[in-house]
Write a structure and sequence with these properties.
Mean pLDDT: 87
Radius of gyration: 27 Å
Largest sheet: 22 strands, antiparallel, barrel
Low-confidence stretches: 1-39, 125-134
Number of helices: 6
Strand content: over 45%
Distance between the termini: 59 Å
Helix content: under 10%
Number of strands: 42
């Protein structure tokens, strides 16, 4: 009864919060529209180039008003493009800056034309200082998808600042669901998102769970595509997160910072960026994190058992401008971590199992359940080198070579783990696992602006992956009655797979009229790995800009998503007649997911203080991909449904109430259902298999019906920032005892986070930033998932209780 009451309180609070957010964000545009129904939105687009007409990525472009005040700034993308929306008629100046280069200031006269195009050329400059208070960004009016941009400023204003974990940062995106184990599920997909740096997709690690290989601390910005991907984007497509990392500048800059507090958290970090001569830029960053809450534990509240983790991350980047047409970028990422596997106190050892172990080990006595010693080590390195060549301002290509090593080693505590078996009639065992993978490949991207109507992009990617899984399994034999008997036996299984993936694509951004843009493309994917498969995937998108501030888009595309080769599946070990024998011995290979994807949406700028983006999507799947944690090891294993679908709607809002008060929020509704089991029989219980194979199928375990988040930032003084954050989830799937698999859900929850930071200008170019953060302000205790109640989750995972953190960052140079 208490849980039901809490649910009603949570839902009522959530509904009131949504209504209040809508009221607050709705007041400003309504008043503005009543005041000036004829108010226009002006768009300024442009390109930054060198004197030899090569386009310039990562250049800062600033827009100033007639008094010389900077009202907005942006960083150019890989094609040197930028876009602004001046707030009103008037005289403006615009200028580009990169390292020791800058462009001439171009004067813009905003009167009647709603769309202006500018070309800025970089040349030698003198040092300047930039301080920016930006307005809301203009609508991207040529992308047939839902797009977002996360800047360094957006990250630094969140609770915990740039110390935020990658998964917590992703939870600010629409429809992003917290799955525990640092997993984030976007648009009802099980993860299925890809990271890119310099346009190069970063291969998955063997765990794809814990390690923030791409730390938000190193981001300059990220351009994010939710659904509707162009033909150049393949493999993982639920979200494409294209990261532009920090790079060196002249004058050089650096910082040293410390973050720590609750849960015995300490996190020192250091970064430095600069130049060598006029042609080479460099950046380096290192951080170390230690906490006693490395993994979401199976216990509520502050009590932590065996959950210590240590992690070190390093990033190195170098940019070399060889000549007027050629540049080379080198990037190296390193992450090394060790995680203890959290335990539960107060469990009772199974006397029958303890007796069997003592039969050959008379001195064995099981430790208390909270002292079971299982842990996982992770070791990940990634590097790429990208050569960019510009024939002209309209023709350029990039050629990249990349390599990744990833290893995850799980060590069990076999006798103690077996001693706490709850139901010996079900399959049980304890196992060590050692997974590692080497991935390498090349990628080529070519862009050609044929004329003002056509921008053609084409390219290919070839990748080779060698993956190994070594399993050392401990179990018992079963006698004729099915009872465990004898001593602990060992079963070994090694699996080595070499796989290839080839991708080819061509696409055209066709703009036959000023208001219409068509994104037309086709890609071909081929794999030789667990299976030999391929697919030709057409992608068609249309965007209609009724006005610069009211844009509509529609998209249809075929998607092809092979399972992660880095997460090598179990072999069917010789487990027949043992306690490790699965309930169903069917052994089929996971096949690639194939999908028809549909999306429609619109984006609206209401005045210069509010923007709204509404998107609906539907995905029809063959071999719907899923993954789960089976047993205590956090290393995931993939399985698939024969058929499935995902659907949903999300609403995203950005608002600027005052120059010093602004925020963003989103709310999403979605569903995912899978029918008939294609693979993974060995991983599931027979009752789960029966439910999946029923006519109606089951809801996916990573499905959450309603998800929402919001961030509100207030700057009461020039150097003081206060930020509040809300995260809401209606609860992941679960089931009642004896009920159908995933037929119900865990309790809903709302998490409130708060931070305050103050910047202290010191002497010369030195500054000190001090911050204080509270996570889970109301100390709500909830299970993000409840383990055995859903498919593929052997252990429950609880949220973080109320925690306090302090941070300080000392800036020098720049």
């Amino acid at each position: 009864m208490l849980i039901r009451t809490i649910n009603w309180v949570e839902w009522c609070g959530f509904i009131l919060w949504v209504l209040g957010l809508g009221t607050l964000m709705g007041a400003s545009p309504v008043q503005a529209m009543e005041k000036d129904n004829d108010k226009k939105v002006w768009i300024v687009t442009g390109v930054v180039q060198y004197e030899d007409l090569r386009r310039v990525p990562q250049a800062t472009v600033e827009l100033r008003d007639q008094e010389g005040t900077v009202i907005d700034f942006q960083v150019t993308n890989e094609g040197g493009d930028f876009i602004f929306a001046p707030p009103e008629r008037g005289i403006y100046s615009i200028r580009a800056i990169q390292s020791d280069l800058s462009s001439e200031s171009t004067i813009l006269k905003i009167e009647t034309d709603t769309l202006l195009e500018v070309r800025l050329t970089l040349a030698a400059r003198q040092e300047i200082t930039l301080e920016v208070v930006a307005s809301l960004p203009p609508i991207q009016h040529r992308a047939s998808s839902e797009t977002f941009s996360v800047s360094r400023k957006d990250i630094e204003e969140l609770p915990r600042g740039n110390n935020i974990a990658l998964n917590d940062l992703l939870l600010t995106l629409p429809s992003a669901v917290d799955g525990g184990l640092k997993q984030v599920h976007i648009r009802q997909d099980h993860a299925n998102f890809q990271f890119r740096i310099d346009g190069v997709p970063v291969p998955d690690t063997v765990s794809s769970v814990f390690t923030d290989v791409i730390s938000p601390r190193t981001w300059e910005r990220a351009d994010i595509i939710l659904g509707g991907p162009e033909a150049q984007f393949g493999n993982k497509t639920a979200a494409v997160i294209d990261v532009t990392t920090k790079s060196g500048t002249r004058p050089s800059f650096g910082s040293a910072q410390y973050f720590g507090g609750s849960n015995e958290t300490i996190n020192p970090a250091f970064e430095y960026g600069g130049t060598v001569g006029s042609t080479f830029r460099y950046y380096l960053q290192n951080s170390f994190t230690s906490t006693n809450r490395g993994i979401n534990p199976p216990t509520l509240g502050k009590t932590i058992f065996h959950d210590q983790s240590n992690q070190n991350q390093t990033m190195l980047r170098g940019d070399w401008q060889i000549d007027n047409q050629n540049s080379v970028t080198w990037l190296f990422l390193n992450s090394i971590a060790k995680f203890q596997i959290p335990t539960q106190p107060g469990l009772a050892a199974n006397p029958a199992i303890v007796g069997l172990i003592q039969g050959n080990n008379p001195g064995f006595e099981p430790v208390n359940s909270q002292n079971i010693d299982e842990y996982q080590k992770e070791n990940n390195q990634y590097s790429h080198m990208v050569w960019r060549h510009d024939w002209s301002q309209d023709r350029f290509f990039s050629l990249a070579g990349f390599f990744q090593h990833s290893r995850g080693t799980f060590k069990t505590d076999p006798f103690n783990a077996l001693s706490y078996t709850q139901d010996p009639d079900e399959p049980f065992s304890a196992s060590d696992q050692d997974r590692w993978a080497y991935s390498g490949g090349i990628r080529f991207d070519y862009s050609h602006r044929l004329n003002s109507d056509h921008l053609v992009k084409t390219g290919f990617q070839i990748q080779r992956t060698q993956a190994v899984n070594k399993t050392r399994l401990s179990a018992f034999l079963r006698n004729g009655a099915g009872d465990p008997t004898g001593e602990v036996i060992s079963r070994n299984g090694d699996n080595r797979t070499i796989g290839w993936r080839e991708e080819f694509w061509i696409q055209d951004q066709w703009t036959p009229w000023a208001q219409w843009t068509f994104n037309l493309g086709v890609r071909f994917d081929q794999i030789q790995a667990l299976t030999n498969d391929g697919q030709v995937s057409p992608r068609v998108g249309a965007t209609y800009a009724m006005t610069p501030n009211h844009v509509f888009h529609a998209f249809y595309g075929r998607l092809f998503t092979p399972p992660n080769l880095e997460s090598v599946p179990f072999l069917q070990l010789n487990t027949v007649g043992t306690t490790a024998e699965p309930e169903n011995l069917t052994n089929t290979t996971v096949e690639p997911e194939r999908a028809h994807y549909f999306e429609v949406g619109s984006a609206h700028a209401l005045g210069d203080s509010l923007s709204i983006e509404l998107t609906g999507y539907y995905k029809l799947n063959k071999n719907l991909s899923d993954a789960g944690q089976f047993g205590t090891t956090p290393l995931l294993n993939y399985f698939a449904f024969k058929r499935g679908w995902q659907r949903g709607i999300d609403l995203a809002v950005k608002a600027k109430f005052l120059d010093n008060l602004y925020g963003r929020g989103n709310v999403a509704w979605g569903q995912c259902r899978g029918k008939k089991l294609q693979s993974g029989y060995m991983l599931l219980e027979q009752n789960e298999i029966d439910d999946i194979n029923s006519n109606s199928g089951v809801y996916c375990d990573h499905m959450q019906l309603v998800t929402s988040s919001a961030v509100l930032t207030y700057r009461p003084f020039s150097y003081t920032t206060i930020t509040g954050q809300i995260l809401f989830g209606s609860g992941l799937r679960s089931s009642n005892p004896g009920g159908k698999t995933n037929a119900t859900h865990s309790p809903s929850y709302t998490t409130y986070n708060l931070s305050i930071e103050h910047l202290l200008p010191l002497w010369d170019k030195y500054k000190l930033l001090l911050g204080f953060d509270v996570i889970n302000l109301l100390d709500q205790h909830v299970f993000l998932n409840d383990g055995e109640g859903s498919i593929g989750l052997g252990v429950a995972h609880a949220n973080m209780p109320r925690s306090f953190f302090f941070r300080g960052q000392f800036f020098f140079g720049g």
